[in-house]
Amino acid sequence: ENNPDGSMELLSTPHSIEINNITCDSFRISWAMEDSDLERVTHYFIDLNKKENKNSNKFKHRDVPTKLVAKAVPLPMTVRGHWFLSPRTEYSVAVQTAVKQSDGEYLVSGWSETVEFCTGDYAKEHLAQLQEKAEQIAGRMLRFSVFYRNHHKEYFQHARYGRGTHCGNMLQPYLKDNSGSHGSPTSGMLHGVFFSCNTEFNTGQPPQDSPYGRWRFQIPAQRLFNPSTNLYFADFYCMYTAYHYAILVLAPKGSLGDRFCRDRLPLLDIACNKFLTCSVEDGELVFRHAQDLILEIIYTEPVDLSLGTLGEISGHQLMSLSTADAKKDPSCKTCNISVGR
Q1: Which of 16, 147, 223, 290 has a CA 20 to 30 Å removed from the CA of 245?
Q2: Span(s) in the chain for CATH 2.60.40.10
Q3: CATH number of 15-119
């Protein structure tokens, strides 16, 4: 290994980095180096950095660059658990190879080029972990009979007259925002119409207050939820609050929304789950919701306004309860799983 004068041969600079098998909290990495280095290299140094968000606060201390020192293994090497990788986040990575010498010092190569990649969304098994956490605090089941959606008067006026190719008198699906868990596969991907179903335990009726507007559309529960609907668990989160939210998706079987959810979200049994049920009792459909969660229901298809009623509510507009683009509290033990952030 040593030259006659006692100095070590320099190591070649790693190049042609390839990254694949990316998940929400792991990736596989490989690169090319000279054959002569393969026998000598004892360690890899991997420098991984979260890409700065253009609109993130410049005064916030930057992520400390994290260099992973790993014993040399045959490539490709899987990186998992060495860092807390966040889902759906852009990272840059560069590598260096090294030979640990007898005095404990490292002889190192130059740094490779820097490659960028983006981690994936939560997979079904991660959502199943979130689902288990949500089940633990869902509470008892209360009966309900209507789904409802609050908004401003203008929203319903627009829906009534239709626009462009959209038929009138329909609530049209729109793209879900980025509220909730950062790794949720529905954010920015799934189209739907949001509904609530929570009732006040003393009246059994929808509450008179809403953060979303004074006008409320109510529709009999069976119009959106029945044995020909699939029900999926999508998310569980809080916004630095004592109460928690669960997002569920109602998708008519075989619809586009159903096909999207089938590959990505845990499917629930509509008659038997801890969140939202539709069961046949004495020949009638009976609906129940979890008392201790605020449920946000996404219905994946257009909804005909003529199937329900529209009216003004008497209560206040409680803006603090709005979840539009709400950021999840990453430190809450109740609704976070160990993967990612």
Answers
A1: 223
A2: 15-119
A3: 2.60.40.10
